[in-house]
Amino acid sequence: EKDGYDWFMRKEIFEQPKAISDTLLGRYSPQGELTLDEIHISPETLRRVNKIIILGCGTAHYAGMVAKYAIEHWVRIPCEVELASEFRYRDPIVDSQTLCVAISQSGETADTLQAIRHAREQGAKVIAICNTNGSTIPRESDAVIYTYAGPEIGVASTKGFTTQLIACYLLGLYLAQVRGMKFGDEIRTIMDELEAMPAKMQSVLDHADQIYTLAKGMEDEEDFIFIGRHVGYPIALEGALKLKEIAYLHAEGFAAGELKHGPIAIINPGMPVFAVVPPQGRDQLHDKVVSNIQEVRARGARTIAVAEQDDNEVDQFAEVVISLPKVSTLLQPVLAVVPLQLFACEIATLLGNDVDQPRNLAKSVTVE
Ligand code: BG6
């Protein structure tokens, strides 16, 4: 049932192009309208929303961090992202104009469930983004957007994550449509880009060997650093989380701009630093990350950049460049996370770990 793969996780990484196209299927009409049938919250209610709070744990929380950038940019509603386990213990400000978005692959995570119960008690509407039909979180939500990743067996989430990103983009575009934003043509452009995503992701997967070669010899490293800005920041966090989960290695993700405020002090000669580099030329983001690569390299770090193909600056500064097909900045996380998933899977394999069932972790955590 692993289809010739050594691990479910690796199989699931390679299933992502299909998982994404299944998640997009039937949600955008030829007339250019988003149809999210599972949103049983009236357009009037959605138009009254004045704050969005996104809740999740682990990988799902990072999907929420990406969603904040997209939703605030497209919909112009303030959006908070919070760890589900922190939410209800701090007396959060929630009322009937608040929309909560609960992201959970399993739909059974106790922290997330308790958070949405609290939100609904305060009168908020809750939309679940979930991969498990009929699980508890969607049942206790006002609406649900299902991801169609298929069963995810590896404990470390991969296709769960990328389909959550797709669902978050769909939700953002749907809210923009319902609220009659500027949009229209812009929604179509973004949908076209999303529909091209499975093929682009396939081309990243076709180069998996480059990542495996990179991993060889790196399994003896003790510390790994991941940096990124904007939507690349949650991807840096996710890259580090994958290594912690299955390779049991010390890995940290930082917002690249924070390096100089502390973390750069821990860089030792030879330490691997992965940088998620935004697309070139559209704003200052790219150049800022390239400078951060130079800064860590000057301290002797081994720099590995995940960057857009034909980026003609990054290869001057990064020792290794992993190329991604061109996409807009907000959508880049869907592609940028893939090499980091492959890297963690390969390092854990080289270390002889049980990749699918890492020590101390469970696929769904039903206790708070
Ligand atoms: C953790 C898993 O316990 O729960 C993570 O180890 C996962 O991989 C997190 O991201 C959240 O799970 P879910 O099912 O709510 O998305």
Architecture overview:
- There is one protein chain.
- The chain has helices spanning 8-14, 16-24, 43-48, 58-75, 84-87, 110-121, 136-139, 159-178, 185-195, 197-205, 208-215, 232-247, 285-298, 314-317, 332-350, and strands at 51-56, 79-83, 98-104, 125-130, 143-146, 223-228, 250-255, 272-276, 302-308, 320-324.
- The protein has 368 residues and is α/β, with parallel strands linked by helices.
- It has a five-stranded parallel sheet with strand order 2-1-3-4-5, sandwiched between helices.
- The model has no long low-confidence stretch (mean pLDDT 95).
Concise account of the structure shown:
Helices cover 44% and strands 15% of the residues. By secondary structure, it is of the alpha/beta class.
Low-confidence stretches: none
What characterizes the major β-sheet? 5 strands, parallel
What spatial form do the alpha-carbon principal axes imply? globular
Helix content: 40-55%
> Percent of residues in beta strands?
15-25%
SSE order, as H and E? HHHEHEHEHEHEHHHHEHEEHEHEH
Mean pLDDT, all residues: 95
Count of beta strands: 10
**Widest sheet: strand order?**
2-1-3-4-5
Radius of gyration: 20 Å
Bound molecules: 6-O-phosphono-beta-D-glucopyranose
Q: What is the first-to-last residue Cα distance?
A: 32 Å
Structural class by SSE content: alpha/beta
Number of helices: 15
Protein name: Glutamine--fructose-6-phosphate aminotransferase [isomerizing]
EC number: 2.6.1.16
Main location: cytoplasm
Function: Catalyzes the first step in hexosamine metabolism, converting fructose-6P into glucosamine-6P using glutamine as a nitrogen source.
